[in-house]
Structures are given as structure tokens and as C-alpha cells.
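Hi there, hope your week has been kind to you so far. Do you reckon you could talk me through the fold, stretch by stretch? Thanks so much in advance, here it is.
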Amino acid sequence: MEVDKVPARDEPKYGGIKAMPFIIGNETFEKLGTIGTSANLLVYLTTVFNMKSITATNLINVFNGTCNFGTLLGAFLSDTYLGRYKTLGIASISSFTGMMFLALTAAISKLHPPHCGTAANSTCLEPTTGQLAFLLCGFGFLVIGASGIRPCNLAFGADQFNPNTESGRRGVNSFFNWYYFTFTFAMMVSLTVIVYIQSSVSWAIGLAIPTFLMFLSCVFFFVGTKIYVMILPEGSPLTSFAQVLVAAIKKRRLQLPEQPQNTLFNHVSINTINTELPYTDQFRFLNKASIITPEDRIKEDGSAANPWKLCSIQQVEEVKCVVRVFPIWIAGLIYYIVLVQMQTYVVFQALQSDRRLRNTSTFKIPAASYAVFQMLSMTIWIPIYDRIIVPFLQKITKKEAGITVLQKMGIGLFIAVFTMLVSAVVETRRRNVAFSHPTLGIETRRGEISAMPANWLIPQLALAGLSEAFTVIAQVEFFYKQFPENMRSFAGSFLFCGFALASYMSSFLISIVHKTTRTSDTENWLAEDLNKGRLDYFYYLVAALEVLNLGYFLICAKWYKYKGTQNDHNLEIALEKLEPTKPLV
């Protein structure tokens, strides 16, 4: 049976390059649709649904957090029951449905509250319960879609190629390149063209366009059905994870042998896709799951008769791989708070800044479009780093990647501190200019528009993009390489779960600051009118958190032990035996 499985997966006429147009087409339109809908969502909630900025920000944070946290459930269902094809199909339809709900809230006047007046003292009606329910239904469908698409789309594309052949590996690399190209392309188009249509032409048209693009994404995906390679789910790797924990707890009173690597149970299934891992002394408590007792029974094939009582060293080491990642992952949670601010309060800063191209121009850059500078910074830096800096570092460090992934993360965390410091300084200037120079009018429901050019926001966005290029890309590589091979779908969802908790943490932090700094109903650090608030103080607070987070990360990085392989371990032992004895000095 196993012999028959390999050709079915690697048969070139059913996958490979023939499937790429459909998968890349699906990816392109899906990104254009989802990013086109979410990029300007904050402005939509505050201008069309008349929400207060604090309410809209918290709703967006909860929505983004739920989308990202849902990827864990999506990865579990994909790897355990549905498979990636069915998961992507269901999720794509759900995303299209959610976008259609949002488009209808803009197109049908009864599905959103009346528009506010332009005067500073004009009253605004809040959305009704029915209008909010319809809006939240759309969000719910979008959450389901994101939960299935995000952990599976990259893996499904890679499934179309045989990683054991040179042509297959080239195909995978080509797919990844095209994937990130389409992501960048979608970000650029969404943050410029679609955001402009939404803000300056019509919200109904601006939301209908991403909905139609998502429909095209569904069409592209299902048209290629007969060509796709579909890997059947093999069961959840979380079961093995749970077995190790249960067995270790049951044998917690037993003593480990003096030479555990030679006496503990170590059966490696010939059917596993995971690389064989060497024994390690970290988390010695878990090693007790591999102690063989008289009650334990072993099958003829060498596996344990009851895996809930006896686990192999391989299983234990796979669990350790995941456990080791957690402290590094926690450092990422605090870091992501910086990125969340670049997606929320920077938009509010832009709304109360001079967004004109020239002093005499009537055209205003949409507030949400300034995020494109963060994307541009990352896009420009990546090839410079890969083609120029990495080869230079390779000559110095003699390492294949120039520096380790943890070192890359550390650089990104260091830049994040300066990102928030620059953000605070720019906000102080924006606020001072608003008080010391003539203003440019009033932003509805907010306050007077500062004469400071919104281009002053570009440095902090560029630094955020540079920080993201180091930290987030390093985390993607880190999770992918450090997780066991059969948990790489979960590795992808691990990153998104970090985004999710960061969104919740940011929402919680904003609520705490909003309550503790309140001096009146309209004045606090995060007031509706930024001129009456002290957003710069909030940025300094986030910068202080990032300094503490950087110190915590450095401690964890020094403690961390990279995942090795049994072949690497055997090579180290062989080299130690060959190394000549050093003379005593």
C-alpha cells in the first residue's frame, strides 16, 4: 500500500507546474479580496457605522485576533479530518459570503446608520442591533474563511510538487516566490486603488470590487480540481503530543537510568515523515515517558502496544521541539503589538494630518494608504538583505544564512523599540503643530487637522517594515524548521495565533490606558480627538514594553537549543573521536 501512495502524490501530470496557474490565480484574487476588504475597515466602521475610534479599534483587534487564532482550529481540521483541498474550498466560499455581507451593509441604506453631519457639534446615530448583527454575521463568515485559508494555502501549493526531486524543489521555490509576489502586489493595489475608491468614490463600489475578486478566486480554485494533488489527512499529530504528556505523568515517580539514550524505548516508525531526532537532556521529566517497565508490552513491529503508557524517545523529542519554541513565541506576542499600532492608530494620525500631495492640491491620500510605505520598506529590504548582506555575512560568520534565525529576530525586536520612539516623537510634533499653526479644517467626529504633512508618518512605517522583514520572516523560518515535519501546518497557525493574542493584548492595553488616563468624558491619552489626547505617551509606553521584551528574548535565545537530527548527532560523535588530544599547557 505504501508503495502505491508515492506515485499518486508525485505523478507530474496531476500536479506540479500545471496546477500553478490555478493556485496562483486563486491566491492573487483571494489576497486582493481579503486585503481590499480589511485594509480600510477601521475607517469604514468609524465613518459609515459611526463607531467611536476606541470601539472600532477594539472590534478590529478582536476580529483580527479571532481570524488568526482560528487558524489553529483550521490546521487541526485540515490535518485530521478534511484535508487541505476541502478546507480551502469551504473557507473560500465562506470568505466570499462574508465579503458579500459587508458589501451589502454599504450598498443598502437600512443596513447602516445615517451619515453624520459635517459640523463639529453634529449628532451621530449609533447602529441598531439589527445592523450590528448583520455586520457581525459578515465578520463571522470572514473569520471562518481566514481560519481555513491562512494555514493551508502555502502548504497546498507545495503539495503539488515532489520535494524529493530537483525539479520538485525548484517548483516549490518558484511557488513561494510567486506567492510572496502576489501578496505584495495585492497589498499595493489594495492600499492604493481599492482604498481610494472606498474613501473617495463610494464605499458600496469599493467593497463590491473585493467581493467580486473573491468570487474569481473561488472560480480559479475549483476549476483546477481535476489537476490538483490532494494529500489525504493522516490523523492529528496532537495525539502523539498528548500521549507523551500522559505517559510522563503516569511514570513521574520512576527514576531515569544513568545512560538514558541507550536504555530508553526508542522505536521510529518506518512510515513517519519526521526526521529522526537525537536524545537531549532538556525537559528530563518528559523522558520518563520512554522508561520501559515490566508492565509495558511491545508489538512485533517494535512499537508500543499501549502508546498512552510507553512512548519512544522520538516522540518525546518531537514534543520537546514544540515546548522549546513557546518562550520564543511569547516574545513575539509583545513584538506584534507594535505592528498592531501601525495598522490602527497610525490611520487616526493620518486623518488629523495634512494628506494633500501639495499645498495647493485638492487630492488627499487616503489615511489607510500610508500603510503601503511599511510594505514598500519590507519589499525593498528583502532582496538587498538576501543578495548583498547575506553573502557578506557568510564570509564573516561562515554560516549558510549569514546569521541565525534568532539573531535575525533580535535585530527586528531592537528596531521595534526605535519604531515606537520615532512614532512618539512624530505624534508630539503633529500635536504641537496643531496648537501652534493654523489648522486645515475639522475631521468629522475627531478634531482639527494639523498642518503637519502626513509624510512625517513615513519614517515610523518604514522602520516597522524593516523590523517586520527581520522578525516575522525569521519567525516563519524558525517555526517551519523547529517543528516536527508532521506539524508544519500547526507551525503556520502558530504564527497567526501569535498575531491573534497580540491583537487581544493590544485591545486590553488600550482599554486599560483609556480608563486609567481619563480626566473627563472626552479627554484621555487615547481620546477621539488626538489633539486632546496624548497618543505619544501611549507610544512611549509600548516602547518601554518592547525594551523589556527584548531583554526577555535575549535570555530565551541564549537558553534555546536548536533542533538537531540523529545524523548530525552521530557526526558530532565521530568528529570528537577523530579529534586529536590537545597537549596540556
